[in-house]
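so the lab meeting is tmrw and i was supposed to have these ready like two days ago... anyway. pasting both below. for each one the top line is the aa sequence and the line under it is the structure tokens. i havent really looked at them closely yet so no promises
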Amino acid sequence: MFKGILIEKDGNSSSATLKDINDSLLPEGDVTVRIAYSSLNYKDSLAITGKSPVVRRFPMIPGVDLAGTVEASSNPDYQVGDSVLLNGWGLGETHWGGLAQKARIKGEWLVHLPSAFSLQQAMAIGTAGYTAMLCVLALEQHGITPDKGEIVVTGAAGGVGSVAVALLSKLGYRVVAASGRMEEAAFLKGLGAAEVLGRAEFASPGKPLGKQRWAGAVDVVGSHVLANVCATTKYGGVVTACGLAGGMDFPATVAPFILRGVTLAGIDSVMCPRSARLEAWARLARDLDISKLDAISHGIGLSEAISSAPSLLAGKVRGRLVVDVQR
């Protein structure tokens, strides 16, 4: 038996409960992991609260992240005792996820834990930090170097945003953090932001084109915020889009793309190819200031994950929530 959060469906509604679950119910897979830490993400919170149809199969254990130790394996790439982590691949949607004390998954989804991180630190980074690194890699691949100009990070006080600010500033970029929580300005400057702007400057319907400012952007908000960021990006700039905290719509025009040569780069962390995952985690081990993780994250127990989900959805959580599944 192991403890886990189980989402079950009753008619048209679903409910999440912390339960004791029999090992025999674990899904198919060639590696069984004894989970040490998971994390609570935006998608996990949608699943737990039922605010969005994230879960595709019931019953479901939510949790897009996990880090732990291999307990059993028939996969030659993983041995009993190996420290591993996993992000995405349908966890918490179509396959039982990380908000539990045990998981059985496909070994091809796993990544060996980089030696630079503990299991807890890996989950302080989690899908959010790995996604932030994918955004940084996309900016670099499109030639956006620090000398090209400012990078704006929207939703900067959240999980993806906070890690993006820390990464970009360490790499030498001048980072402007945009947030709906100006009370977090000191926190964001502590991560390396040179300037903090209120989200209100981006959240209202804007013009097809605005004054050129950004060489690049990391956007986790979507909707009018993304549209306004694109409209104010400099000629040849690159906007990476990886979230929809403000909405799935994109009320923009083609003007920035055909008149300024702006590139809108979509970032998907869930089904991202293994080679890109390995590169992202290798770069995180090299380029993330680990000392910033204490400021970016704080811990909760598995028993607190359900009650924490509404606060995360409401934008009241700073940075990352690391879940200790043993408490």
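ok protien two:
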Amino acid sequence: MDKKIILIVDDVEMNRAILSATFQEEYDILEAVNGREALDVIELHKDKISAVLLDVIMPVMDGFEVLEEMNRKGWIEKIPVFLITAESSQQVMKKGYELGVVDIIGKPITPFFIRRRIGNVIKLNNVVNEQEAMLKKQEKEIRELNRSILETLSTAIEFRDCESGEHVVRMSNLTLLFLKAIYEYYPEYGVEESELQVIADAAVMHDVGKIAIPDNILNKPGRLTLEEFEIMKTHSLRGCELLDSVPKMRENPIYEYAYDICRHHHERWDGKGYPDGLKGEEISIWAQVVALADVYDALVSERVYKKAYSHDVAIHMILEGECGTFNPILMECLKKVEKQVRESYEDKN
């Protein structure tokens, strides 16, 4: 295993030599003679640097300027910095700690003392980093498990609906594509980057309530009667009931989005949707996005009651309002990502 790195930043060669000799048995040593050189070294090796031993008074760029730049780039949160300085005034100490240094050690240097003092902090920081990495790995595994469970349940429903099961995957991909356009071009909607994949995962649950719809209605090859359609419309509310029946579902970050999408993906911009008759911006942007993705996928897919339309025909029908009224901003997003939508469906048939 490669040794971790300690970066020594000091314009005095003798100081660098003493510090290098103190740590070279346990660490690979890199040196810089001023702050500008130090930042270049950190940029190249930041993932392997265990600590920076930083002088304050140096030519070109001093130690405080280095700390300010490390704060600006977010490096100070991951890399422990020690000020090694003969300047031990209260002002220097206060400014150093305010800029995020973990310790300030005065010159002249005592090798045994500095090795133990800095070594202990490095070991503690390594433990913290390992724990953070482990938690991130566990979080990723839990997220993937959640997604797998949701897709399995939703795919089972799609099979019952005479679908191949690929519909839920396409819905997730389309939702993510449209949401990225919202995130990039319309920040006023307040969609955070961290939300994009969570909402796309929640989208696979949009039709989960169909599990409560009788087969003779769900798979009827012809047009539904008014009575049958009223029964079909209940799937949005039944989906919400199903989500609420899952133990601890409310504690899952995906719940809020999945519930809202289940209930409102058939609401329409002009207020002519169901079950709540919401209108315009009363409908969450993610429910609007899932509604658009659902309509497009339905148009280009073969169903028991229709043949599949081509991509171009489907896009034309949506933009011309033949499939209901959508948020004009979503129509602009559809135009912006139409090429990617086409490419994502090229291998579908």
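from a quick look at the 2nd one: The chain has a mean pLDDT of 86. Residues 56 and 64 are 6 Å apart (CA to CA). will dig more after coffe
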